[in-house]
Every structure is written in C-alpha cells, then in structure tokens.
Amino acid sequence: MKTLLIICDGMPDGPDGRGETPLSTAYHPGLDFLSKNGLIGLLDLEYEKTADTDEGTLKILGCYDGSYPGRGYIEALATDVETQKGDVCFRANFATLDDEKILVDRRAGRDETGLAELVEAVNNMEIDGVQFIAKHALGHRLIIVMRRIDGKPLSWNIGSNDPKKTNVPVKEIAAKTPNAKVTAGALNKFLRKANKILSEHPINKKRKVPANAILVRNVGHPTKTKGFEQRYGKKACIIGAHSTIAGVAKFLGMDFIRPAGATSLEDTDLNEKTNEALAALQKYDFVLLHVNAFDTLSHDRKRGEKTAFIERFDQVVVRRILDRIDLNRTIIAVTSDHFSNSLSKGYEHSVEPVPFVICGNGIKATNTEKYTEKTAAGSGIVRKSIMDMIV
C-alpha cells in the first residue's frame, strides 16, 4: 500500500456569526467524497499553549519526541546555513517600526524587495564574543545563528521579542534561566544595532514598507533524531514550498521536492504540486503533500479568499488525484497542523483538535456527507495519532 498524506496548513477556521467557516461554505466535492467513503474525525495533537507548523507536522508524522530541536533549528536546516554544536538558531521576521519604535508591521509588508542585501548588512556581526550569522529564508523571513567565538555553548532558554500584535513596542529578549543571560544580552545588543543599520540602509529609502527591524520568533539548537525511514521502514518524501516543511524533511531524512511555481501563498501552482505528488507515488512508499496558503490567507484576514482557495484546492488537487489513483492500492489522508482563525483579533493559530479524513482499502467508512470542522467533531472519533492507520 502507498500512502498520500495531505497537510492543509491552517485550513480549519473559526465560525462566523452564522456558525459557518470557509471550509463549511466552500464547494469541495472531492473532500466530501473522502468523507463519505472514508473515516472522518478529530486529531488531537496535544498542543499546550501554542500551535505551530513544525511541531504540528512532526506530531502528525509521529516524530515529535525528546529530540525536538526547536523551530529555529528546523528553519536553519531549510536554508542550509552551517550550524555546529553549541549554536543557537532563530527563525526571524523582517518587520517595521515607526519613528517611535512602535511595531506597525510584523512582516514588513511581505515585500521581498532588497531583503537579500539587508540580510548581508547585518550578517557576521560580532558582539560580546558572539558571532551572528544571518541568512535570508523564504519571503520576509531570515535565519539567525549565534555562535560563541571561544567555542563554548550558548543557551537556548530565552524568550522572543515578538509581541505577536502591532501598535505596541517590541519586547526585550528575556533569559529564562541564569545561564541564558549571556545569550539574551548579546542578542538584545544585536537587535538594537540591526535596527540602526537597517533604518539607515539605502534599500529602506526605496521600499514602501521599510524592513527596519528584526523579530526573533522561535529558538532552536542543532540536534539529531531517528529518521522517518528508520521509524517506519518506508521510503518517503515531502512536497511543498514552505521553509519549515523543507526543514522538517531534512531533519527526518526525507527527500524534499519543491515543484516549479510552488509558493507558500495564494498564487502557488497547485497543478504542479499535484503532478509531483502523482509522480512521487510511483517512486515512494509515503508521500506528504503540504499546502500552506490556507494559513497565509488566515493571517492576512482574507476569509473570502480562503474559501475560494479551498475550492480551487479541491478541484485541482483532491479531485485530480482521486481521478488518477486506485484507492485499493493507495491510502489518502487529509488533515491540518492547526486551526488558523481568520476572524481572530490576536494571533491566529489555536490549539484545538483538527479535522482529519482517511480513505482507502481497509479503512472503515463513517459515511459522513461533508468534510467540515463540525462534521469531524460530530463523528465522535478523536485520535491522538493517525500514522498507525496510514502506514
């Protein structure tokens, strides 16, 4: 049996005043076919306070354990930046501060103009015996690696400066333990110096939305884990565009395929993603197809566009795949890494269990007409893992 797992990043959403979500209002006969002919329920990823893509994907794959290195290292793997034991790695955003140092845009307008040059402007700084290595990642994101010049390890027990909302000042980096004070102190100095360099850089004189600050969002450190093939005995790949997913693939020793025209945004080429998934099923035992735009549209509060994208995803991805695979020989599963609430006034990710559907030979059907958050909850089925059913 082959397995195709589709992770729809942030597709589940919160209800509006009528109790409807983008998923419940969208026309998606492909997903509904899976729901009618497969098993639908909720997947409890057992988040604690926050939900995010790297942790959610690793949990869906049954690979989230004591070797989890933190998202900063996952993102660093995706950029191929050199890391070594004792480093501390960060996933970061270019952002925009106004003249009063108030955060007005957490993503610098999602404008990539000149970002490679801005990264170079802050790369290879040395502060208090710590080297700061910066590398541009996807879109408005960058990776920062801290390394002590004397080779001693740094601590990753520090907080973030990201308030996760606008119209407030950025926070100071706080040490969570006494031995993290050196790391936190050097990082605060770096961020202040970077703000000054970026504010004065000629690129930012040309940009409509200046990228004049850095938000340090997630920390991590280099570590190793047991690979996917070691865990399951399956040759596996991940298809996607998001840097986090590329990092997860590298962390787990899975091949990563980035289709032509694939992005993490609404303009992603779903046809090419589908083509690559179908081709990969001929070569691999386990194929993970990741689609991110649902989450991006939620973050941008584009609820109507999210509904439309769900319909396009269903037509171009789900129905095309169903037309071309044999469900007697291939198990197809669809789920999400977290909810993304497009109506939220705060941070959009939330931690409740996510819908899933699994269809294929040997999977007992629940005979549910529609695939929605509500019908998944109404099935009464709650699982903490689906890997035992799909591999």
Could you give the topology of this structure?
Elements: E1 2-8, H1 22-25, H2 29-37, E2 39-43, H3 53-60, H4 71-79, E3 88-97, E4 102-105, H5 115-122, E5 125-127, E6 130-136, E7 141-148, E8 168-169, H6 181-200, H7 202-206, E9 213-220, H8 228-232, E10 236-239, H9 243-251, E11 255-257, H10 270-283, E12 286-291, H11 293-299, H12 303-324, E13 330-335, E14 339-340, E15 349-350, E16 354-359, H13 373-378, E17 382-383, H14 387-390
Parallel strand pairs: 1-12, 1-13, 2-17, 10-11, 10-12
Antiparallel strand pairs: 2-16, 3-4, 3-7, 3-9, 4-8, 5-6, 6-7, 13-16, 14-15
Question: How would you describe this protein?
Answer:
- With 391 residues, this protein is an alpha/beta fold.
- The chain folds into two domains: 2-68 and 225-390, Alkaline Phosphatase, subunit A; 74-220, 2-Layer Sandwich (Alpha-Beta Plaits).
- It has 14 helices and 17 strands.
- Helix 10 (270-283) packs parallel to helix 12 (303-324) and helix 11 packs antiparallel against helix 12 (303-324).
